[in-house]
Design brief:
Layout: E1 12-22, H1 27-33, E2 42-45, E3 50-56, E4 59-65, E5 71-75, H2 77-86, H3 92-102, E6 107-118, H4 125-133, E7 137-139, E8 146-151, E9 155-161, E10 168-174, H5 175-178, E11 190-196, H6 198-207, H7 213-224, E12 225-227, H8 244-254, H9 268-278, H10 280-290, H11 292-302, H12 308-323, H13 331-342
Antiparallel strand pairs: 1-5, 1-6, 2-3, 3-4, 4-5, 6-11, 7-12, 8-9, 9-10, 10-11
Length: 344
């Protein structure tokens, strides 16, 4: 049975992906720049033209490029949380971004994702999906790049604004469903992501300081998208007023001024590192003496209470398995379902 996640009631804005390149740095000097000298990086194979890579908890440092492209650093969402947790700076990302702005010729920002996590239902994701499908919006994105998808069972909505090749795009989705908490009607976790590349990413950083994160985040959204209320007496959408829920969302997010340092997520790699690295010898000894079946049986009889980090890890694993069986439905079917269910 799926366990419940610990409740979070504080909406926040966070850095959820960062990648950049540098032609003047070595892998070791990059580690020093990031303030991660105390972390144990592991060397592995490279990718995308890089022969080698150092990895640590979602942070990858690629080097030895065939095309002499210097060093490429990539932080996934998990890597961003690890950077916040382990870097030697109190304001890790702010320090790093100020460094990028001070030496713009030395670094190229290839991707930056900034995400708004909504735990309070500020973003009504079904209404958002309906408005996109009904074209109740004014946008700089092409209409054919405005899509809504969902998983089998009409749950887990995802809204994409902008194509994969766009220098900037939005993605709005049900994060609670993605993480496997789909059976809890009382838990809300929606995410609004802005994904930026190259100049768009650097321009975002140039405007940013410790006090205006929410303002810049909302300014980007309003520049590219407004959800509007239809007016039968006016054929020009650009004169339609914003829908109340969208206006409330912008106003709420705009007031968030500081980066929120998030707890690092416990993952399978950490679990394996603890079991094999710290308990491996003891576990191997028990298996040698008693046999693996007896060890598994005795573990089951103990029934130790799982901590929340292990519960979350199991939920995430179950979610990944369920996703393999999910199928996407087309926009017309989704809209028809929403209309039938909610009377629109």
């Amino acid at each position: 049975m799926e366990q419940k996640i610990t409740r979070n009631t504080d909406n926040k804005i966070l850095i959820d992906w960062l990648s950049f390149t540098s032609k003047i740095h070595s892998p070791q000097s990059i580690i020093e720049l990031l303030g991660l000298t105390g972390c144990k990086f592991t060397e592995t194979y490279g990718m995308q033209g890089y022969q080698d890579r150092l990895i640590f908890d979602g942070i990858s440092i690629h080097f030895n490029s065939h095309r002499n492209e210097g060093v490429w650093v990539e932080m996934s969402g998990q890597g961003c949380r690890a950077f916040e947790t382990y870097c030697n700076y109190d304001d890790g990302f702010l320090y790093l971004f100020e460094y990028f702005k001070e030496y713009p010729d030395e670094y190229h920002i290839t991707r930056l994702d900034v995400a708004y996590d909504d735990f309070q239902g500020i973003i009504p994701i079904k209404s958002f999906a309906r408005d996109i499908l009904n074209k109740n919006y004014v946008s700089r994105f092409r209409d054919d790049s405005m899509t809504v998808t969902c998983s089998a069972g009409r749950v887990g909505y995802t809204i994409d604004c902008g194509s994969r090749k766009s220098e900037i795009k939005f993605r709005i989705y049900d994060k609670s469903y993605e993480r496997g908490y789909r059976d809890d009607e009382h838990f809300t976790w929606n995410r609004f992501e802005i994904q930026m590349r190259n100049d768009r990413a650097f321009n975002f950083l140039k405007l940013l300081d410790s006090e205006n994160l929410g303002q810049i985040f909302c300014g980007v959204i309003i520049n590219y998208l407004r959800i509007v209320k239809p007016d039968k007496n006016d054929s020009n959408k650009r004169r339609w007023s914003m829908k109340k829920w969208f206006n409330d969302f912008i106003g709420y997010a705009e007031r968030i001024s500081l980066f929120t340092k998030c707890d690092e997520e416990y993952n399978l790699a950490k679990c394996e590192d603890f079991v094999y690295g710290h308990c491996g010898n003891a576990l191997d000894t028990l298996i040698t003496i008693k046999g693996i079946d007896k060890v598994v049986e005795e573990l089951g009889q103990r029934k130790p209470e799982r901590s929340q980090k292990y519960i979350n890890l199991i939920n995430e694993y179950e979610s990944m398995k369920n996703k393999k069986a999910s199928a996407e439905d087309n926009s017309a079917d989704i809209l028809q379902f929403l209309q039938e269910k909610d009377g629109f």
